[in-house]
């Protein structure tokens, strides 16, 4: 079985009972339409993506909340499949970690094109938590099966150069009006 046909699952480990599903979106402080995520890579360069809050409100809120808590700072990209995706955001660093809860699936109309940002999950559609991936090329076979929540608007050259173990030095949420492209 090829790496591509294996999908975007999180590594399986023996898991206890199902985790609670996050459903509260009331904590949003800034309107997600007006902010971007900025990933500063430890090896240099930055990746910037905008959000799709109308298509994936709970997922966008979760990413913003985790980012504002510093959750992603210092984490790595633990999975890189050439021509497919780079995947990161796992506190365990090996594809098995999560944030202690699961998100409900928010499959939507957004397509998996180059630069798409979406949530990784196990075979359970409601198992996404904190791991995300960025598409290196269009992946139409993933459409409608994973929660797409953003699109890279700057730094695809950096994304395409990511190697396994590359560190996200900092991840920040910035107002679009303050972000200098």
From TrEMBL:
<keyword id="KW-0413">Isomerase</keyword>
<dbReference type="InterPro" id="IPR029000">
    <property type="entry name" value="Cyclophilin-like_dom_sf"/>
</dbReference>
<dbReference type="InterPro" id="IPR002130">
    <property type="entry name" value="Cyclophilin-type_PPIase_dom"/>
</dbReference>
<comment type="similarity">
    <text>Belongs to the cyclophilin-type PPIase family.</text>
</comment>
<dbReference type="Pfam" id="PF00160">
    <property type="entry name" value="Pro_isomerase"/>
</dbReference>
<keyword id="KW-0697">Rotamase</keyword>
<feature type="region of interest" description="Disordered">
    <location>
        <begin position="1"/>
        <end position="25"/>
    </location>
</feature>
<dbReference type="InterPro" id="IPR020892">
    <property type="entry name" value="Cyclophilin-type_PPIase_CS"/>
</dbReference>
<comment type="function">
    <text>PPIases accelerate the folding of proteins. It catalyzes the cis-trans isomerization of proline imidic peptide bonds in oligopeptides.</text>
</comment>
<feature type="domain" description="PPIase cyclophilin-type">
    <location>
        <begin position="45"/>
        <end position="163"/>
    </location>
</feature>
<dbReference type="GO" id="GO:0006457">
    <property type="term" value="P:protein folding"/>
</dbReference>
<protein>
    <recommendedName>
        <fullName>Peptidyl-prolyl cis-trans isomerase</fullName>
        <ecNumber>5.2.1.8</ecNumber>
    </recommendedName>
</protein>
<dbReference type="InterPro" id="IPR044666">
    <property type="entry name" value="Cyclophilin_A-like"/>
</dbReference>
<dbReference type="GO" id="GO:0003755">
    <property type="term" value="F:peptidyl-prolyl cis-trans isomerase activity"/>
</dbReference>
